[in-house]
Structure formats: C-alpha cells, structure tokens
C-alpha cells in the first residue's frame, strides 16, 4: 500500500508561459494591418492553399482549425488572411519565429530560473521571487494589485459573478495557507512579466501558475488568449478528476489507450482507484509509480535553467509523388538541410559560445515492394564536425548506413518521404583552458592524429572528441579542444566558419615548421597512433589500421538504442542518442511524421523515469490510496 512521501516540493511556484497563436502574432507584428483580422499562417507547400500551422483567435471563432488547409479555411471564413511561412532553400524558414521566441525569453527570464521548452513556451521557477515578495510586499500590503493579476482564473474559486472581486479577496486573504500566498505572489509576478512581454514585443501570452510544471502546463492552456490561471493545491483533485486521460501529454498514445481499454480509466482522477503496486504490476515499476503520482498531481520535474535550445534541427517532407527515389536526390536535399544546420550551429557558436557534438539523421522511407512494410528507417548519429562540407559528408554517410540497414538483404527500390538532421549535445565552451590537460589522456592521441595524418587534410578535432553520454571529464576535454581552436583563430584571423579547422591546420603548420610550443607536446608522444580523425579517439585507438570508412560507419549508432555490434572498448566509449536530449522546439520544426516518431521515443524514455514524490498536493490524496 502506498505511504505518504515527505513533502519535498510543495512550496515551489512554477509558471508555464505559452504564446498565443504564436506564428500568427509574429506575422501580424510584421504586417500590422492584419491585427484583429482572422489570420492563419500556412505551410510553404501550397497544395489546396497550404496546411495551416497557426490560426488566430479571430479565425478560430469562425471554426477555422489547424487541421485544415487554406482552401478549406476560406470556405468557413471567407475573409481569412492566409500568410505563407517564410521560405528558404525550398523549405520553411523559421528564423523569424525563433528570434521572436528569444525576445520573449529574454524578458521572462528576468525573475527566476527559465527553461525554454519549445519555440514559444517556457517554464519559470518563481519560488525565490515569490518568497521575497511575500516577505517584503505581500499582496495584502499592496495598495493596488495589478489589474492583469486580478483577471486571473483561480481554479476552485466559486462563482463567475464578481470574479475580479473574488480573485482580489483570494489574493489578500490573511488566513490563506503559505502555499496559496506564494501562488498569489507568483501570479502577480507573472502578470507583470506578461505585461512587459506585451509592451516590449507586442505579443500576448497565456500562463499557468502552480506548484509544479505538470500542473502549470495544464493550466496555461485553460484560458487563452492573454489570460492566466492559478492552480491552488486544493483544486488539483477536482481538476484531475475531470481531465480526460488522453489530454495528459504523455497519455495521448498507447499507454492512454491501454488505461482506457484495459482498466476503464477515462479521466486522470480515475487512476486514484488503483494502488501503486497494481499500476506497477500492470505497467512496470517506473510507469506504475509515475501514473500513481500524476493521479495526485505530483511531479518533481525541475525547471532547468536553459534559455537556449538543446539542439538544432531541420527537415523536409516529400509526400506522395514527391518522394525521393535516388541517392542523388537525397544527397541534394541533405546538402541543403546541412547548409542550414551548419549556419545555425555556427551562429550559436558565435553568439552563445556553444558547440554541438552530435549529428543525427532521421528519415522516413518505404520499399516499393511490400517486404517488411512496417520497417522503419533507423535514425543514425555520429560525432559532429563543423564546416558545411563535413556536415554534408557525414550526413550522407549516416543516410547510406541507415539505408543499408533499412534495406537489409533485399535490394528493393525505395522511396524517402522525409529527411531531417539535427545537431545535439550542445555544450558551453569554457572561457579558459589548459593545453596540458588537453594533451593528457585519450585526447592526446587524437590530437596527434589530427595534426599529423597527411591523408586527412580537412579533418577537424571535434570528431575525435569522445563526446559521450553523461561524462563530464570527457566533455571538459572537448571544450578545451574548441577553446584552443578559438584562441588560434584570434591570432590568425581565419574565416568565420572554420574555427575548428583552424586548430588542425595551424597545428600542422606548426609541426611542419619544427618549432612552436605545441610541438613540444607532440614531440614527447608516441606518434604511432595516427588515425583517421573522423572517428572518436577511443575508436581510432582500438582499430588501428582499419579502413577509415569502416570506422566511420561502425561508430554510427541507432537513434533509439545503445550501440550494438562493437567491441568492449568501443562499447565503453560508444555514442548514444538520448531521446530526452532533443529540444521540443526542434521537434516542432521536424516534418510531422518524424515529430510523431521522436515524440514516441521521448514519451517512452520519460515514462521510464520515476517521478519524485513529495508535493504537498499529496496531502489532498492521502486518504485515497486504499485500492
Ligand atoms: P502552439 O503553441 O501549439 O500553438 P499556437 O501558439 O499557434 O496557438 P495557441 O494559442 O493555441 O498556443 O504552437 C506554436 C507555434 O508552433 C505555432 O504558432 C506554429 C508552430 N506549429 C507548427 O508549425 N506545427 C504544428 O503542428 C504546431 C502544433 C505548431
């Protein structure tokens, strides 16, 4: 039988802020004459007026929905203004929306830890700000409470009549519990931030304010546009009692269906009938506990301090007759996607001093014969090397490897219906570095190979970096390599997009000259460890003499799973692609089919995590655990 867990997090104040019909607002700011008119942003593919990707609230009132195409929207709303998403390289160019999102983030991040959750939504941890406000200027001490805050919807507060008066009373109740007082402070802070966003960017947004991320996210969508909703702990039980299970983000798929069909669970609240053991028995330890927690509104997820995207991605779909049939066609599109990706990671490096370490390719394909009709094109990853040509080269290899695996022993004709690439494992570069540390350990041999392998003229040390999952020391080395490249760049003033290449070229030059301080490090090392620098250092060391191409291909790994057919040492140093490391904003940019697939990985990956207990909300449920 479940037992009450300690209250670890009940006094947090978390806000989820979501922009209203975001792409429409960005377009309306560009063209103010569209303000107030029913407007929708449509995809670049103009078949039947293009698919709607954002719909203004004026248009929604006419029944226009995102699932429609432009032509259909015009039928239900003849005056609708359709704006095409900007196009570049034959695909949607989302840069304007990304920077608009960044403008908003820079305002919202001023009051507490801020996590950019997608192109248009953030989580804020306002606990400290709310605590300070409660100490210094509690709501009851304010002469006037922000008008916008008084328009808040407070769940569980009865009566629509005199709502503002009721809300005002709720804000200044002297007998309120500490948690509610904190939420009231949080709501005032959020109202102020939303006002700032409107003033500075002309964009409206909606927000949810609660004690955890899950509840804040549920609440932000409850009253839109330009409103905010507060979830006191006392309202959680009723909120979840009527919340259809499929509305919970992680329960939209098979798990939600199983809950409905196998257990008769239709609302999240229905889960309260089941004990934690029962849920664990049925769905496994982690998922069972997670379900038990969400039924009680418990979610221990932290707001991660991250205002920049976790990864960058771009993709393109090729539906119906546009499906790609030849490697040449795939390569041509990959080249364009790689150009965009290269530009974006370069910009990130220049502006934010961050380096991406993993390149991943996703595709959807089918075989013209129906052998294995359900087989998926495997996603593949490899170390990311900066420079357009290298990214293009590696992306093509990833595709070739994926295609071989996809086709297996059958040499069928194939069609590719979508392609996407992403750059992940983005790490900050440190401001200082120690060259001696860089030349210690594994990085040492890889540095040698980069600097002295005559066969590899264009290779960069980034590929020899052991960029692994959860390995801080290796990451440190990675960053030092880059910092080194940068410092050389400053001396030699090389071209902007070749920072890392500069390290190799410069090192080679120094070596050739036979002087220079770097050479001292080289001269005391075993130069027999020459390898293709395309492979991670550990890989090179264990496969000396093998064909470089083999190295590259074998170090590719599945998007979903850990490395398979490799030696023990490689297994230790292998590359992995962690679905949870994908930034949701990047997923939004991927083609729809790939979005679904990637979200599927994330869901299953997240489900596998045990959610911490301890919200004070627990107290409201502590008597209901007896089933
Ligand atoms: P959303 O936040 O889902 O929606 P929205 O901001 O348009 O509207 P709402 O007020 O209901 O939140 O998406 C943010 C932007 O992401 C949206 O304006 C357009 C883009 N987007 C797509 O390109 N494709 C999609 O399938 C979705 C859901 C969104």
From TrEMBL:
Q: Which InterPro entries match?
A: DNA/RNA_pol_sf (IPR043502), DNA_pol_Y-fam_lit_finger_sf (IPR036775), DNA_pol_Y-fam_little_finger (IPR017961), DNA_polymerase_eta (IPR052230), Rev_trsase/Diguanyl_cyclase (IPR043128), UmuC (IPR001126)
Name where it's found. Nucleus
Q: Name one GO molecular function term.
A: damaged DNA binding
Region feature (Disordered): 450-469, 529-553
Give a GO cellular-component term: nucleus
Q: Where is the composition biased (Polar residues)?
A: 529-540
Question: Boundaries of each UmuC domain copy?
Answer: 14-252
Cross-referenced Gene3D superfamilies: 3.30.70.270, 3.40.1170.60, 5' to 3' exonuclease, C-terminal subdomain (1.10.150.20), DNA polymerase, Y-family, little finger domain (3.30.1490.100)
Q: Which UniProt keyword terms apply here?
A: DNA damage, DNA repair, Magnesium, Metal-binding, Nucleotidyltransferase, Nucleus, Transferase
Its recorded name reads DNA polymerase eta
């Amino acid at each position: 039988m479940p037992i009450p867990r300690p209250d670890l997090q009940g006094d947090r104040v978390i806000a989820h802020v979501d922009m209203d019909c975001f792409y429409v607002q960005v377009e309306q700011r560009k063209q103010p004459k569209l303000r107030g008119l029913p407007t929708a942003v449509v995809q670049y593919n103009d078949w039947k007026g293009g698919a709607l990707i954002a719909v203004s609230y004026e248009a929604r009132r006419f029944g226009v929905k995102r699932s429609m195409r432009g032509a259909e929207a015009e039928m239900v709303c003849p005056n609708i203004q359709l704006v095409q998403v900007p196009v570049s390289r034959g695909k949607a160019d989302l840069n304007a929306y990304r920077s608009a999102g960044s403008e908003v983030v820079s305002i919202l991040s001023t009051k507490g830890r801020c996590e950019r959750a997608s192109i248009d939504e953030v989580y804020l941890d306002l606990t400290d700000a709310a605590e300070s406000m409660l100490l210094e200027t509690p709501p009851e001490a304010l002469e006037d409470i922000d008008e916008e805050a008084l328009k808040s919807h407070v769940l569980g507060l009865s009566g629509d009549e005199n709502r503002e008066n009721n809300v005002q009373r709720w804000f200044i109740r002297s007998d309120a519990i500490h948690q509610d007082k904190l939420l009231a402070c949080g709501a005032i802070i959020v109202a102020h931030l939303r006002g700032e966003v409107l003033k500075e960017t002309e964009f409206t947004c909606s927000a949810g304010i609660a004690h955890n991320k899950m509840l804040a996210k549920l609440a932000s969508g409850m009253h839109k546009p330009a409103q905010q909703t507060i979830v006191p702990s006392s309202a959680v039980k009723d909120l979840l009692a009527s919340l259809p299970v499929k509305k919970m983000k992680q329960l939209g798929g098979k798990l939600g269906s199983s809950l409905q069909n196998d257990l008769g669970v239709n609302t999240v609240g229905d889960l309260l009938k089941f004990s934690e053991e029962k849920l664990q028995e049925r769905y496994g330890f982690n998922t069972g506990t997670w379900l038990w927690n969400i039924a009680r509104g418990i979610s221990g997820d932290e707001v991660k301090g991250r205002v920049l995207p976790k990864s960058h991605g771009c993709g393109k779909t090729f539906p119906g007759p546009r499906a790609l049939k030849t490697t040449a066609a795939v390569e041509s599109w990959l080249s364009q996607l790689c150009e965009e990706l290269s530009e974006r990671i370069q910009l990130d490096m220049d502006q934010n001093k961050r380096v991406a370490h993993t390149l991943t390719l996703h595709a959807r394909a089918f075989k013209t014969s129906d052998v294995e009709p359900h087989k998926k094109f495997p996603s593949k990853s490899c170390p990311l090397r900066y420079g357009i040509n290298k990214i293009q080269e590696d992306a093509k290899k990833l595709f070739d490897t994926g295609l071989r695996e996809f086709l297996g022993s059958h040499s069928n004709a194939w069609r590719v219906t979508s392609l996407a690439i992403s750059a992940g494992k983005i790490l900050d570069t440190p401001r200082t570095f120690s060259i001696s540390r860089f030349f210690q350990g594994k990085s040492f041999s890889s540095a040698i190979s980069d600097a002295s392998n005559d066969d590899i003229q264009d290779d960069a040390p980034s590929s020899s970096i052991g960029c692994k999952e959860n390995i801080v020391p290796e990451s440190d080395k990675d960053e030092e390599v880059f910092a080194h490249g940068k410092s050389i760049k400053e001396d030699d003033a090389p071209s902007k997009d070749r920072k890392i290449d500069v390290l190799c070229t410069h090192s080679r030059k120094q070596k050739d000259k036979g002087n220079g301080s770097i050479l001292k490090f080289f001269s005391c090392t075993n130069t027999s460890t020459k390898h293709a620098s395309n492979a991670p250092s550990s890989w090179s060391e264990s496969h000396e003499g093998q064909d470089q191409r083999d190295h590259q291909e074998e170090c590719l790994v599945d998007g979903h799973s850990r490395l398979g057919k490799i030696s023990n040492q490689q297994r230790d140093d292998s590359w992995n692609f962690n679905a949870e490391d994908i930034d949701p904003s990047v997923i939004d940019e991927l083609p729809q089919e790939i979005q679904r697939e990637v979200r599927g990985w994330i869901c299953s990956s997240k489900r596998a995590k045990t959610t911490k207990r301890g919200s004070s909300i627990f107290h409201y449920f502590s008597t209901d655990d007896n089933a």
